[in-house]
Amino acid sequence: MNTCQILLSRGEGGLEKHVRELSISLNRAGHTVSVIADPQFLDTLPEQIQHFPVNARLSRNNPWLWLKVLYFIHRSNADIVHAQANKATAVLNKCRCFHSAKTVGTLHNIKSKVKDYAKLDQAIAVSNTLRSQLNTPNAVTVYNGISSPKVKKINLYKEFGLNPDLPTLCAVGRLVEAKGFDLLLEAIDGLHLNLLIIGEGKERHRLQKQIQELSPDTHCRLTGYRPDVSSLMQSCDGVLISSRREGFSYVCSEALLLNMPILSTDVPVANEVLDKTLIVPIADSKAFRRRLESLLKNPAHWQRLMQEAIVFAHQAMTLEAMTENTLAVYQALTDA
Predict the structure, then answer these.
(1) CA pair distance 233, 79, nearest whole angstrom
(2) Is 259 left (phi over 0), alpha (psi -120 to 50) or beta?
(3) Coiled-coil segments, which residues (predicted)?
């Protein structure tokens, strides 16, 4: 099968990770893959994937961008053209009457305007929550998948100067308001534990100030960016997700594939796979604290609550499962 992916974002995040891993996985499975994207992203792809560069700084309403994308769609000779996220989907809609390929769009995050997805041949959402937002019969859920994490045990107490007699938990993500790390710090203040917040972002200064004001019983470190997130995560006793909003939490799926205990706010994908007792209301630091205290008193029970979700993740949230499920969508369209 000949597929063309369209990505019109810039920078590096979960969306870019998804497109890169899907494209490489499709290519390894024997399919022809081309990618229309910003040159900065294309430089991260192997040469066996065909590169079609566009200026992703251009607005989705810029006719020059539409023409450039349409030109490359014809160059790719694709059976399936797959737009990733809202901007690419909007541009693909502008082009859809001028080529014969089947069209697919994937919604990756909560958005107020999603009508463009219904105009394509198929819509994909990365969680059931997002699929319900699409409100169109041509939508299916395909969970994001990741490669099985490669890890090595890290002595967190030595590396970060933590108290070895206390449980050590971690939270992972960009230091931005949406991740709710300020609420997490409110929730743990005064609890006898260690917390690592792994990531970098514009909220660092504010969070560091909040950490300095924590009770002396609570030890928290901002690690900054780390390439060994999986190893840090598995070296901890549990993973905390405090997000105010998510489209799909890669942190949750990675923690599940590492067989880690998780406590999360009511966001996808955690709220679709975890035991309901492991989900707390968004922005309710008191509820988060109460549930965490209870779980820390009985870690074995916490781990037992995780078992069904862990089994599901190993079936549906691997890179292999994501690739197979995406190919099934493509095949159904070409067979129609």
Answers:
(1) 40
(2) left
(3) none
Q: Do residues 108 and 127 touch, judged by C-beta distance below 8 A?
A: no
Q: List pLDDT tens digits, range 176-211.
A: 999 999 999 999 999 999 999 999 999 999 999 999
Global pTM?
Answer: 0.89
Bridge partners, 146 (sequence order): 318
Q: Which CATH architecture has domain 156-316?
A: 3-Layer(aba) Sandwich (3.40)
Give the Cα separation of 252 and 5 in Å (integer). Answer: 25
Longest Cα separation, the chain: 65
* Distance, CA of 142 to chain centre: 12
User: What residue spans define the domains of the chain?
Assistant: 2-145+318-335, 156-316
* SS3 letters across the chain: CEEEEEECCCCCCHHHHHHHHHHHHHHHCCCEEEEEECHHHHCCCCCCCEEEECCCCCCCCCHHHHHHHHHHHHHHCCCEEEEEHHHHHHHHHHHHHHCCCEEEEEECCCCCCCHHHHCCCEEEECCHHHHHHHCCCCEEECCCCECCCCCCCCCHHHHHCCCCCCCEEEEECCCCHHHCHHHHHHHHCCCCEEEEEEECCCCHHHHHHHHHCCCCCEEEEEEECCCCHHHHHHCCCEEEECCCCCCCCHHHHHHHHCCCCEEEECCCCHHHHCCHHHEECCCCHHHHHHHHHHHHHCHHHHHHHHHHHHHHHHHHCEHHHHHHHHHHHHHHHHHC
Instruction: Classify domain 2-145+318-335 at the CATH topology level.
Output: Rossmann fold (3.40.50)
